Amino acid sequence: MTATRHELPPFVDLHSHLVPGVDDGSESVEESLECLAGLYDEGLRTVITTPHLLLPRLGSDAEVGRELAFHRLAFHQLAAACQGRPGLPAIGLGQEIWAPDATTIRRVLRRSDVGLDGTRFLLVEFGFDLLGTHEDVVREVMRAGRGIVIAHPERYRYPLRTGPLDQMRRWRDLGALLQVNAGSFAGHYRAHRPESESLAWEMVQEGLVDLIGTDHHGSRRDGVSALEAYDLLVSRGEQALAERALVETPGAVARGELVSLGRRPEVRTPGADA
Ligand SMILES: [Fe+2]
Fold first, then answer.
1. CA of 162 to the centre of ligand 1 (A)
2. How far is the CA of 95 from the centre of ligand 1 (A)?
3. CA–CA separation, 204 and 214 (whole Å)
4. By the number of CB atoms within 10 A of the CB, which of 47, 109, 192, 196 ranks highest?
5. For residues 149 and 171, what is the distance between their CA atoms, to the nearest angstrom?
6. pLDDT 10s digits, 147-164
7. Alpha-carbon distances of 25 from 21, 68, 74, 220, 260, rounded to whole Å
8. What is the pTM of this model?
């Protein structure tokens, strides 16, 4: 059964490229407003948008600082344009951090201006062709007392003799949350990574989907519908998972309420102190 709009829960997206003009996502404030309105129409109520922070290409701390300031300035321009307009989700700023190893991620772990909208969580990608397990990155983030969301593990190419699901389980056992792209469930990334669709569904079966994100790159790219993913999951009897991955867990991360990582993230009641 397909949910009608008035029945939809308030989706929360922690992965998109809608800060105008800073990466390969939206190119202008107008394009971002149009994309945000589209997301609102299909049920998104909170969008933390995450420009690429390509650490291996930033040679110094000063360069990292300049890049983050560049993101912030463009984000504030977008936020100002959103003010007073109905039919848009609440927006926040984060980053999708490219960090293939512990040394790289260590460069930003103590920065308060890095993370998903001021929370301790970082959205991290390892690069599409994995070079080993990258478990050192997860360990380094956890050691620093921060949380890690691994972006689209269904889209990676895994090294020979590495079972993708086994690797995902190991990342999760170390404390990472796994974020699947909404478009993977309908096969939108088949051209880029043919196995991404089947892997996304195997992750569903194995209980490895913590979050679903749009990875929206502006109006040029399709396959970014949270509602399409929600409907597909509901049609396969996975409504509880769909609501956990599109509403509850990303909402808890965005509100800074997620206090325990691992197989079953615990959500703290707002106001309760742990
Ligand atoms: Fe992304």
1. 24
2. 9
3. 17
4. 47
5. 10
6. 999 999 999 999 999 999
7. 7, 16, 13, 8, 32
8. 0.93
Mean pLDDT to the nearest integer, 102-112: 97
Neighbours of ion ligand 1 (CB under 5 A): 96, 215
Who contacts 29 (Cβ-Cβ below 8 Å, separation ≥6)? 20, 77, 78, 81
Measured distance CA(91)–CA(157) in Å, rounded: 32
Per-residue pLDDT tens over the stretch 39-84: 999 999 999 999 999 999 999 999 999 999 999 999 999 999 999 9
Q: Which CATH architecture has domain 9-255?
A: Alpha-Beta Barrel (3.20)
Q: Which two tokens stand for residue 273?
A: 């102190």
Measured in angstroms, how far is the CA atom of residue 217 from the centroid of ligand 1?
7
Ligand 1 centroid to residue 213 C-alpha, Å: 9
Q: Residue 59 C-alpha to ligand 1 middle, in angstroms?
A: 21
Query: Ligand 1 mean position to 98 CA, how many Å?
Result: 10
Query: How many Å lie between the centroid of ligand 1 and the Cα of residue 156?
Result: 13
